[in-house]
Design a protein that fits this description.
628 residues; Heat Shock Protein 90; Ribosomal Protein S5, domain 2; Rossmann fold; 9-stranded mixed beta sheet; 5-stranded mixed beta sheet; 21 helices; 22 strands; elongated; nucleotide-binding; chaperone; ATP-binding
Length: 628
């Protein structure tokens, strides 16, 4: 039996085009061929269990071998095999109807993956790295003859009698001159580790050296000897394919280490995903400890389709904020050959997205409810993640509102609702606004915090990288009339303005004089002096930065699109307490002495918020020494 034929594509020069186009991710040839071998192995198992194959299934294994001298890579399986007819049917007829249509779609396709996926070109990806490909196969069917097929990447092939004596298929690649890098143990091992690590049929790649106990030496210490053992690439039964009831915490942690051998930290907790309607999806998502580096932790979720690794760029499958999670998602409903544009258009992907978001929110809620203390302890690791989620995903925010925590300067935690209840009667201003005071830097704003607490107010700590956005979020979504004000953005009685009216004891003329005096003493254009009617026992001078301006500038800094504000210099308000006896004294002293006192009081205010530095600090110290 020998037959020559032509592969049914109608354009002669299509292979060179495909080859060239596919060249960039050419390592996926191995994924495609190994998955075909795994499929063939699983098919024989299925046929046997259905009673359609009565022979011995035996131990199923896929072997990957290479021969550097002969420049070949061989993928062998003992799966169902193919008859010559089947080779002709499955291999020769590339799954598209005509060259015109192919070329049309080819233009739309974005990458090699997509072409392979759209056209069922899995097997043909072999030609990305090979000049010539051979298939040697023996079908499981009774009386089947071995078949041999060879093709040099043009559209003609040759089929003849094969030599295989046992059931299964060998695919032999004659590696081309440009792809000799693949004739390398480390390279192949690395590709197999990436794509085949959790395939359901054992994949063997040569042997490896390990050691084995070998009696004892003269001193009675155990001896070891090196032995060569089969080098199996994969864990055929990874944790996500099991039922959660079979798994202990230790199993989940062990699987995490298997996924990320490099990782030093243990995950905080995990979610086992398992859906079969309206789409199929399994997986395990881990919550890592998240520090402040939102960026570098991305791309840790690995996407699988029936245990074949596809990608770790899950951008369109997993909601943006969940990309901080680690773990595995496996769905046969996501085609093996995914591409960006495909994913964006796919309805299933949207559903998967929503499902994962919901599961994550439910899990967090469950932990919050069942172990609030534990949840609070984890807050510093998961808080950033939850806030990120609330800001970027409304559905998530709806749920997260119930377990998002606010922490005050006493390190007490409250839910949003609890906090509202706590302060709503005390921190209400004359217009009915509920004012949440917060600090972005507890050490630097200590003076302001102490003053606020002395008044019976509470101060939140909002010092995280997303907290500028969270302040706006709380105002918009946190309930009616909530205002957030940083504790140093004005004097306390202005921050929460009550109805009581305090009279200014200075006359209008004295007020003007005091303003002049301070303006001259300070002599800075970025400081606006204001005489205010505060209680006599409040500080004589404080320096504050307007909440609105500061927020706009913060936003500009974190890239919130307020670029214009970023360029405006800071403009501070110098609140002079007109009712403080010191002010009267300044006015009554001579010009020089008055200015000296004003400068001293101003410097103290700067000092209390860490703004007094350099030469100003030196002259302040000198002046203080003189004064005492
Ligand atoms: P796909 O796997 O997407 O169908 P391929 O081009 O990779 O496309 O393979 C085409 C067909 O060839 C497969 O569906 C299968 O029937 C057959 N085939 C490929 N490799 C093997 C193999 N190792 N053993 C048995 N059949 C195979």
């Amino acid at each position: 039996m020998q037959e020559k034929g032509s592969i049914s594509i109608h354009t002669e020069n299509i292979f060179p085009v495909i080859k060239k186009f596919l060249y960039s991710d050419n390592e996926i040839f191995l994924r495609e061929l190994v998955s075909n071998a795994v499929d063939a192995s699983q098919k024989i198992k299925r046929l046997s269990s259905l009673g359609q194959f009565n022979g011995e299934v035996g131990e199923l294994v896929v072997d990957v071998k290479f021969d550097e001298a002969a420049k070949t890579i061989t993928i062998s399986d003992n799966g169902i095999g193919m008859t010559a007819e089947e080779i002709k049917k499955y291999i020769n007829q590339i799954a598209f109807s005509g060259a015109t249509e192919f070329m049309e779609k080819f233009k739309e396709a974005n990458d090699a993956n997509e072409i392979i996926g759209r056209f069922g070109l899995g097997f043909y990806s072999a030609f990305m790295v090979a000049d010539r490909v051979e298939i040697d196969s023996l079908s499981y069917q009774d009386g089947a003859e071995p078949a041999h097929w060879t093709c040099d990447g043009s559209t003609s092939y040759e089929i003849s009698e094969g030599t295989r004596t046992t059931r299964g298929t060998d695919v032999i690649l004659h590696v081309n001159a440009d792809s000799e890098e693949f004739l390398n143990k480390f390279k192949l091992q690395q590709i197999l580790d990436k794509y085949a690590k959790f395939l359901p049929v054992p994949i063997r790649f040569g042997t490896k050296t390990t050691s084995e106990p070998d009696g004892e030496d003269e001193e009675g210490k155990p001896k070891y000897k090196s032995i060569e053992v089969d080098n199996f690439i994969n864990n055929t039964n990874p944790a996500w394919t099991k039922s959660p009831s079979e798994l202990t915490d230790e199993d989940y942690l062990a699987f995490y280490r298997e996924l990320y051998p490099q990782s030093m930290d243990e995950p905080l907790f995990w979610i086992h995903l398992n859906v079969d309607y309206p789409f199929n999806l399994t997986g395990i998502l881990y919550f890592p400890k998240i520090k402040n580096e939102l960026e570098i932790q991305r791309n840790k979720i690995k996407l699988y389709s029936r245990q074949v690794f596809i990608t770790d760029e899950v951008k369109d499958i997993v909601p943006e904020f969940l990309m901080l999670l680690h773990g595995v998602i496996d769905s046969p409903d996501i085609p093996l050959n995914v591409s960006r544009s495909f994913l964006q258009a796919d309805g299933n992907v949207k559903k998967i997205n929503n499902y994962i978001t919901k599961k994550v929110a439910d899990k967090l809620q469950e932990i919050f409810k069942s172990d609030r203390k534990g949840f609070e302890e984890k807050w510093k690791d998961i808080g950033l993640f939850i806030k990120y989620g609330m800001l970027s995903d409304e559905k998530f925010a709806e749920k997260a509102n119930e377990f998002c925590l606010l922490e005050n300067t006493n390190k007490e935690s409250y839910t949003l609702k609890e906090y509202y209840e706590k302060v709503k009667d005390i921190q209400v201003d004359k217009d009915g606004n509920i004012v949440y005071l917060y600090s972005s830097d507890v050490a630097q704003q200590d003076g302001f915090i102490t003053t606020a607490i002395a008044k019976g107010y509470d101060v939140l700590v909002l010092d995280g990288p997303l907290d500028t956005h969270i302040t706006s979020y709380l105002e918009q979504k946190g309930g009616e009339k909530i205002q957030l004000k940083r504790v140093d953005s004005d004097v306390i009685d202005k921050l929460i303005q009550k109805d009581e009216k305090i009279e200014l004891i200075l006359t209008e003329e004295e007020s003007k004089k005091a303003t002049d005096l301070f303006q001259k003493a300070i002599n800075r254009t970025d400081m606006n002096v204001q005489i205010e009617a505060l209680k006599a026992d409040e500080l004589p001078v404080s320096v504050t930065l307007d909440e609105f301006m500061r927020r706009m500038k913060d936003m500009a800094k974190t890239g919130g699109g307020m670029g214009f504000y970023g360029n405006i210099p800071d403009n501070y308000k110098v609140s002079v307490n007109g009712n403080h006896p010191l002010v009267k004294r300044m006015l009554e002293s001579g010009e020089e002495e008055g200015q000296k006192l004003a400068k001293q009081a101003f410097d103290l205010a700067l000092l209390s918020r860490g703004l007094l530095t350099g030469a100003d600090l030196t002259s302040f110290v000198k002046r203080s020494v003189e004064m005492i």
